[in-house]
Design goal:
Largest sheet: 9 strands, mixed
CATH class: Alpha Beta
CATH superfamily: Alpha/Beta hydrolase fold, catalytic domain
Strand order of the largest sheet: 1-2-3-5-4-6-7-8-9
Oligomer: single chain
Distance between the termini: 15 Å
Number of helices: 9
Number of strands: 9
Bound molecules: alpha-D-glucopyranuronic acid
Number of domains: 1
Helix content: 25-40%
Strand content: 15-25%
Structural class: alpha/beta
Length: 353
C-alpha cells in the first residue's frame, strides 16, 4: 500500500503542550488549537466574516408545471463595509417547509442534472446551488485582483478558503428564511469542491452534515500516506498554488514535519455528521490514505460518544460525482438528519479488517 510506513499521524487527543484530551470540554479547547493550525498553515486562513448577509429574491418560477418544485434565483449580498454578492439558486419542494437544505457550490461543473435535482427535492430537501468561481477564479494564474479579493483584501487565504466562505454566506442567508430548517443544513461538493466543503464544514457549526466526494489531497486524503499514483503535497502546491495559503508548499517532501494531517480537518466536524465518499479506481485521490484519516478522526467521535456520525464510503469506479453518489449521500442525510434507519449498503471497504 505504501512504499514505506508513514510516521504515526499527529495525535488528535494530545494538546500542543503534551497534556491529554480526556473529556468533551478538553476537546473544545483542543479543537481551537487544531483549527488555528490547519486552517492557517494549509488554507491561509479564511476571509473575514461580514457584518451582515442578506438574500434578495430576483425571480421565482415553477420547474415544470403547477405542482412542480419552485426554482428561485437569489442574490447573496454581504455588507455593510465590504459589499460583495453572488448568485444562489434554490429548487424548493412543494409545501410550506421548513425544509432541510443541501448546498452545493460546484455550479461551474454543471454535473447537477435535473435528475439529481429531482432526487433532492423528492426527499423533501431544498437544493441550493452557487458557482464558487464567482467568488474566486479557478484559473491557475489568477492574481488576487478579482472577486472576493477586492472586497476582502486582507489575509493570505487561498481559493479553497474563499469558496468555503461562500458556503458560510449561503448559510447566513438561508437560515433567515422561514422555509428553511436551520438545524438540518448539509453541504456537498466534488473533488476540489470536496476539499472546499471539508474546510467549510470544519469551520462552521451551523452545518449539520458535510459530504465530500472524491476530495483527495488537501481534502480527505492523507499527506503522510501516499497510496500508489496518488497526488502529493508538492504536486498539488505546484499545480494549484492559488488553492492554498503560502505556508503549505514548504512541507513538500517534509510531510512528516507538518503539525497536522487531514484527520485534523475531519475531526473539526465532530460531533456533527461527516461523510467522505471515495472511488476505488480514483487512485489520484488516495482512497487508502483517506481510510487512514478516517480511522484517526474516529478517536474524537468516540470520545464524544457519537461514533456513528463519521462515515466513509468506497465504491467501484473512477473520479466523478455520479447520480448514484448523490443517492447514497441522500440516504445518509436521511439517516443522520431525519431519523431514518441507517442505509443497508454503504458499499465495499477493502481497507477495513
Ligand atoms: C486535479 C487535482 C485534484 C483535484 C481535481 C479536481 O486532478 O490534482 O486535487 O481534486 O483536479 O478538482 O477535479
Amino acid at each position: 500500500m505504501t512504499k514505506s510506513a508513514p510516521d504515526a499521524l499527529p495525535d488528535l487527543l494530545t494538546f500542543c503542550d503534551g497534556s491529554a484530551v480526556t473529556s468533551a470540554a478538553d476537546w473544545q479547547r483542543r479543537r481551537e488549537e487544531i483549527s488555528r493550525l490547519i486552517v492557517n498553515i494549509e488554507y491561509g486562513g479564511l476571509p473575514s466574516t461580514p457584518g451582515t448577509t442578506s438574500l434578495e429574491v430576483l425571480h421565482r418560477a415553477r420547474v415544470c408545471g403547477d405542482n412542480s418544485p419552485h426554482f428561485v434565483s437569489c442574490r447573496v449580498q454581504t455588507g455593510p463595509e465590504a459589499p460583495f454578492s453572488f448568485l444562489l439558486t434554490l429548487t424548493i419542494p412543494q409545501g410550506d417547509g421548513p425544509f432541510p437544505v443541501v448546498i452545493n457550490g460546484d455550479a461551474c461543473w454543471r454535473y447537477v442534472t435535473d435528475e439529481v435535482a429531482g432526487y433532492v427535492t423528492d426527499r423533501g430537501f431544498i437544493l441550493a446551488q452557487f458557482n464558487r468561481v464567482e467568488i474566486a477564479s479557478d484559473i491557475h494564474s489568477a492574481a488576487r485582483d478579482h472577486g472576493i479579493y477586492l472586497a476582502y483584501p486582507n489575509g493570505t487565504y487561498g481559493a479553497l478558503a474563499a469558496w468555503a466562505w461562500g458556503y458560510h454566506r449561503c448559510v447566513d442567508a438561508l437560515i433567515t428564511q422561514p422555509f428553511v430548517d436551520p438545524s438540518r443544513i448539509a453541504i456537498t461538493g466534488h473533488s476540489r469542491g470536496g476539499k472546499t466543503v471539508l474546510l467549510a464544514g470544519a469551520t462552521d457549526d451551523r452545518i449539520a452534515l458535510t459530504t465530500a466526494n472524491n476530495s483527495g489531497a488537501g481534502g480527505a486524503g492523507c499527506f503522510r500516506h501516499q497510496g500508489p499514483n496518488s497526488e502529493t503535497l508538492a504536486g498539488i502546491c505546484h499545480n494549484f498554488p492559488h488553492w492554498f495559503g503560502p505556508e503549505l508548499e514548504a512541507y513538500g517532501g517534509r510531510e512528516n514535519e507538518l503539525p497536522f494531517d487531514q484527520h485534523f480537518l475531519k475531526a473539526l466536524h465532530a460531533p456533527r455528521a461527516l461523510l467522505t465518499m471515495e472511488a476505488l479506481e480514483d487512485l489520484w485521490a488516495n482512497p487508502s490514505g483517506t481510510w487512514l484519516t478516517h480511522c484517526a478522526a474516529t478517536a474524537v467521535y468516540d470520545l464524544l460518544n457519537v461514533p456513528d456520525r463519521i462515515n466513509v464510503t468506497f465504491r467501484d469506479g473512477t473520479h466523478k460525482h455520479s447520480p448514484a453518489d448523490w443517492l447514497r449521500f441522500l440516504d445518509v442525510m436521511e439517516w443522520q438528519l431525519c431519523g431514518k434507519p441507517k442505509p443497508a449498503d454503504l458499499g465495499p471497504n477493502p481497507f477495513s479488517g
